[in-house]
Amino acid sequence: MAATHATTTTAIRSYRIYFRDATNLLARPYDVALASDDDARALAMLMLDRQSVYPCVEIWDRTRLVCMVRNGD
After folding, report:
1. Burial class (CB in 10 A: 0-12, 13-18, 19+), 15
2. What is the pTM of this model?
3. What is the pLDDT of residue 6?
4. Which end of the chain is more exposed for a tag (fewer CB within 10 A), N or C?
5. How far apart are CA 4 and CA 10, in angstroms?
């Protein structure tokens, strides 16, 4: 009997994380490829925590706003 291996594939999505400056203007974009909205939000929160210039970020999946994260959220 031959062994079969089940493989799971996770779809990778392209997200864009935008930092917003104190005047709420888009300041700096980052393109990332991640498996889920939750992963994109977690990365954005980490990026936001590791800097002190920008007060918030927005996460987009093409034309869909995934969420906005502010310092302290």
Report:
1. buried
2. 0.80
3. 61
4. N
5. 19
